[in-house]
Amino acid sequence: MGRPPLRSVLRRVAAGVVVLWVAATTAYLALLAAPGDTVDTLIGDGVDTPQIRADIIAEWGLDRPAVVQYLDYLWRLVHGDLGRSYLLQRPVAEVIGEQLAPTLILSVAAATLGVLLALIIAVVTAGDRRPWLRRLSSGTELLLVSTPSFLIGLVLLSVLSFRFGLFPVAGGADLRALVLPTITLALPIAGLLAQVLRDGVDRALDEPFVLTARSRGLTERVVLARHALRHALLPAVTLAGWLFGTLLGGAVIIEQVFGRPGLGQVTLNAVTSKDMPVVLAVVTLSAAVYVVVNTAADLVSLVIDPRLRRS
Amino acid sequence: MGDLVSVEDLHVTFDTPTGEVAAVRGIDLTVAAGECVAIVGESGSGKSVTARTLVGLAGRDARIRAARLELAGTDVRAHRPRDWRQVRGRVAGLVLQDALVSLDPLRTVGAEIAEVLATHEIVRRSERAGRVGHLLDLVHVPEPQRRARQHPHQLSGGLRQRALIASALAGEPALLIADEPTTALDVTVQAQILALLAERRAAGLSLLLISHDLAVVAQIADRVLVMRDGRVVEQGPTERLLRAPEHPYTRQLLDAVPSASSRGRRLSATTGPARTALPARPEVRRGDTVLTATGLTKRYGDHTVVRDVGFTIGRGETLGLVGESGSGKSTVARIVAGLLEPDEGTVAFERTPWTSVAERTRRPLRRQLQVISQDPLGSFDPRWNVQRVIAENLDPDISRADRTDHVVELLHRVGLDRNLLGRHPRALSGGQRQRVAIARAIATRPSLIICDEPVSALDVSVQAQVLDLLADLRAADGTALLFISHDLGVVHHLADRVLVMADGAVVEQGPVGDVFTYPRHDYTRSLLAALPALVTTGRP
What we know:
The complex is a heterodimer of chains A (311) and B (540).
Chain A: H1 6-33, H2 38-43, H3 50-60, H4 66-78, H5 92-125, H6 131-146, H7 149-163, H8 176-205, H9 208-214, H10 220-257, H11 263-272, H12 276-304
Chain B: E1 5-16, E2 19-31, E3 36-40, H1 47-53, E4 62-65, E5 68-71, E6 74-75, H2 81-87, E7 92-95, H3 99-102, H4 109-119, H5 128-138, H6 144-148, H7 157-169, E8 175-179, H8 187-202, E9 206-211, H9 214-217, E10 223-228, E11 231-237, H10 238-243, H11 248-255, E12 289-300, E13 303-314, E14 318-322, H12 329-336, E15 344-349, E16 352-353, H13 359-366, E17 369-372, H14 376-379, H15 386-391, H16 400-413, H17 430-442, E18 448-452, H18 460-477, E19 480-485, H19 488-494, E20 497-502, E21 505-511, H20 512-517, H21 522-530
Parallel strand pairs in B: 3-9, 3-10, 7-8, 8-9, 14-19, 14-20, 17-18, 18-19
Antiparallel strand pairs in B: 1-2, 1-4, 1-5, 5-6, 10-11, 12-13, 12-15, 15-16, 20-21
């Protein structure tokens, strides 16, 4: 397996940086255009006098021209400084840092489980060996994909936690509390990915190179794993990159359903109270995750398919 | 020593949702050790199914019944999957058509060859790389160690096919089954691959060749079986079969091969469409020039794909353009079609500048120039039915009520019935698709049709029908053709003049009879020498 040439890697990384900049800027502009005064937000329920207002404006540099504020924001962003939360009066990096870990753990766990399930389902049900299993599987997948994830979460909760008490109802303390949210988020992903993968495997199985592979005396399992699955992975990898991005959004809701700590709670509070630096940071962070994951997906595609490496 | 392949009364049927379909209906087949046997037939004749049945790969829905089915003396009728895996690659190797898709495009050719070595434990793991190199060397791939690390798309068509053959030989099978092994290749490369197969056979390998092209298999086969509708209609030693074919179908196949000697006569037995000449268009001026190209040059980076190409096409004339893949003939076609701007040179179509002008100025004349491509499926919108595909090209002034009548009339001209109106391209056979493409092209009453390899993807007999159709339409309408093909026989059959291209430049041009009878350029000579010729002298 050859290494992708440096140039195509660099091109993708550069494109990622541009996307990040656009995301950060768009979020900045959107919040700028939103109604309400920043000073009001900062004062909140505190004492409101012209003197305090003037102090706040001076302290946060709100009297500077908008362009200067924007450039200052970008400059600090490049250096990893996300600013201070208006509401909590603490560095945003600290606020998010505390809550990032639970969300990330949940997302990565769900993505891993989803991909594994999809791979197993696709390999077992691809081809025409077990038509009944295939029909059952695609029906279930369709159901999972079209059901909102919070509903899946509520059903799992009411059966496994309330009825049988197998898992805790809420909280994020131990590993057992991670099980249900992970499954909830993983099931729709598994359903969607399994469909794409199986479709890819089916198409690959019809290709002449599979006939050639079989004519070499390979077992059906090797034909699937070594030849067909790899072709099916190409569209699935692209889709998986996108799915992981949506996982973060999904996690926000699921964290509420299962009462888990995480970015969900932070985001909700920041948006409702117009805590601009925190909202900006969450948006930029989500964009960064999207960019990183999708760039990774593109690079994985380059590794899988040598034909894409032609410059 | 007994026969390597011994088959008696083989039947293969497929279970389909619409009932059982019989693909093979009782054939006998033997291949002796060291013998080369060919099965010839059109698509759907059952020849490929027969070949695949021999390695147990006829398909999951296939039902196989035979009085005898033996490979290397072993009855394989009761073989389970595990037994078949011992046969595949070890007793019989399989080579398919285009190696670009018959080798896994995601894996290096070395890995594909090594896979056979590993599966059948031919050599120890540490010796595999060396054996892969040896095998590539055996099939005359230069720089075997470097090539082994490359992917199929990085190799030329000929090298790829050699690598595919190497992978089939890796398990040291006694029998090689080759299903259309040279069909996707240029004529000179085809000759090289046939020479390679002949060489392996001289080294003791038995060959079962499957092809639609009698001329190709006749080069190396000892015996030929002609299949039609799942039955063998005739078989015998190659020489006898070519010289004195007994069955009318064999004769029909032989007659369908276009060549110098077939000029001016019909290739197909079917009656052609009525030569209903349309009323002559007022603007038709016989004898003048439809298209003039001068000094065409096209570069991509520092690679010159077309170099100083010039020619004219007279009204009603057929200009053949021959050359191998990479010779630049398709680039010339795209420039002439007004789809690609040349870096240098000009094209004038109907005495109007055709290059270096805005598409807006070309548009009024666009309908006068039509294109027929090798793969019509790719040029049809898959969601459009035949009626819509053809009606799109009708004169916009024709009233809605009359359009269907016009489409039906065009279908009749290309020998198709009106019951195809509602069909979608996928539901048509290859020959029907090409006829629809022709109907679409002639719908605008063009003065020039560019035919880019229009019959390369078709069976010999279907090719014959389409060539006859083109000849009829040309005679009736006075349409000029720019006929691009790698098949010299086809060009010799149809063209008035011919242009031979190599490495982007025209190496020779002139009347087709002169160029092909007294070639002056070495390249033209090598093309002609590689042409598989049918020795059919003495046949009535």
